[in-house]
Amino acid sequence: MNRSLKLKYNGFTLIEILIAVVIFAIIISGLFASFRAFILSSERVKNEVTQSKIINTVFKRITTDLEAIFVLQPPRYKKPDFNSEPDAYRFTGEEVTIESQVFSTMTFVSLAHTNFGNDERKGVARISYYIKENKTNTYNLYRKDTLLPVIEGTEDCYVPIVCKNISGFELTFFNKNGDKYKYWDSDAEEFKYTQP
């Protein structure tokens, strides 16, 4: 009787195991790369959402100040003469250059005075928005709020930063005809003694 021996293998060869390990490594590295990209993009989105909230808060503050703008009307308002003092309630906007970069500033009078500390006084305030360079070579936007009339000998002890580490602040002013300006002076004949 002739019996042929048939051997049955119940395992994998070394080459099959190596191929499986390589395929597994490729899949895991792809999944890791996708997961890492997802984490980085979610952090980027989170930072953008945070920045968006900050910018939205700044715009709300500026809007609140401008909606409460205080303007003298004739006959209390008189056009300035050649040697007269500028109107204490005028609106001004200008461009300033800081380290070769141009920024906008504006100053106006508003009923949106904000109290800080123990000062409980209310009234109209001269509000200024301006830029200063900070230690990180970016810029901070400040909001100065001074109650009128200004008492001689008193200084603002606190001028809050509205927004930190910004790269630009540009304003455009429009007259009633829709003409654009990068500066404004409501005491000037050029602007017909009006607000933007």
Arithmetic mean pLDDT: 85
Rg of Cα set: 33 Å
H and E string: HEEEEEEEE
Assembly context of the chains: single chain
Strand order of the largest sheet: 5-4-3-2-1-8
The biggest beta sheet, please? 6 strands, antiparallel
Instruction: Provide the β-strand percentage band.
Output: 15-25%
Number of strands: 8
- Strand-pairing-aware structural class: alpha+beta
Helix content: 25-40%
Supply the number of helical segments. Answer: 1
Taken from the alpha-carbon principal axes, the silhouette is elongated
Distance, first to last CA: 114 Å
Low-confidence stretches: none
Task: Describe the protein's architecture and organization.
This protein is an alpha+beta fold and 196 residues long. Helix content is 28%, strand content 24%. It contains one helix and eight strands. It has a six-stranded antiparallel β-sheet, covered by helices on one side. The model has no long low-confidence stretch (mean pLDDT 85).
In a nutshell, what does this entry contain?
With 196 residues, the protein is α+β, with helices and mostly antiparallel strands. Helices cover 28% and strands 24% of the residues.
